[in-house]
Structure of SET domain-containing protein 4:
Amino acid sequence: MKKGRGRTSRIRRRKLSKSFESRGVNESYKPEFIQLRKWLKDRKFEDTNLIPASFPGTGRGLMSKTSLREGQVIISLPESCLLTTDTVIRSYLGAYVAKWRPPLSPLLALCTFLVAEKHAGDRSPWKPYLEILPKAYTCPVCLEPEVVNLLPQPLKAKAREQRIRVQEFFTSSRDFFSSLQPLFSEAVEGIFSYSALLWAWCTVNTRAVYVKRGQRQCFSAEPDTCALAPYLDLLNHSPGVQVKAAFNEETRCYEIRTGSSCRRHEEVFICYGPHDNQRLLLEYGFVAARNPHACVYVSQDILVKYLPSTDKQMNKKISILKDHDFIENLTFGWDGPSWRLLTTLKLLCLEAEEFTCWKKVLLGEIISDTNEKTSLDIAQKICQYFIEEANAMLRKISYMKDEEGALVSQLTLVETLWTGELQILQASAETLNSLQTAFT
């Protein structure tokens, strides 16, 4: 047998292939990253642990140059590198911000600075950072209306609220933008357009880290906690990662410590928090694979749809649930219907003669076999309804991907969300079947 033709060699090659598939491709040689590193070095930061790389599945991120041990500081970004409201106040915009009444929000100050610096182009001292920022975002506010219509109902409602909020943010800022005309040779309307402000809003909303600052008279009472952190914000999110991230008052640096070890040439992640995929898409514009926090939300309308319309106590039951904060955050998850969802269904399924026991239901007590079985039956019906809805939406998205070529990337994002929700619902259906079998 020739060398390398045996079973052991095939296994070794498969393992090697799998290893290379998960490894990143070094991008530190690219001009934009060379310029960024030089810019950061001039501001007293030079990272020795991480390098920019492109990864399958997550795209651009940071890769470990060496093995990292648990608790190690992997990034310590000096305050001089952070873009904060202090940056704005010290800039040419400072005088305009200080005299404006009523005072600007910290968010508007940051967005205004980003738009102005991006417009400045090569003249901006922040150009190396601006060059590596995304040119466009995929938060729902940036999606086409026909794509937003494909989102799950709870997310669709929040997406529309987000769009209204950003549009109002733009409209209410126009007078301040007009006051900046002396700074520009072109008309400010062309510089501070809706699309420009939307880009800046998404940049802050999706990439800012938390750095608390004291209240200042030149800003409104809204919390001043957002800071843009060049280089650090290349880190991608992973729901299973534990890190410690905070501004160190002693070193005056924003620091990230690992919560676990990391091997050489692996992608290094940060965790934005225990967010489900609908929240991640709404706030950050992406969906996390294998997200343990992913879930499917059940609204009040869906609950009532599967309950007897003849129940004269229904309004009273809904009122009790609202008073005890039980009508929100009802979900199906990877391990089945949540305790809150089953408890809510048990209360809604109480017979007239059992209604006085509603407090016991909220405390987790079993009222009757009939109540237990009825609530499980309705949970199964709701789960099946969502499974059928998810399958229908996936078929619709598949059709639209063939017909709407320009929307393929947006449609693929929503498709990923629905695929994850379908998997959760299928897992929940299996759990409910097991509960019913055990009950009978």
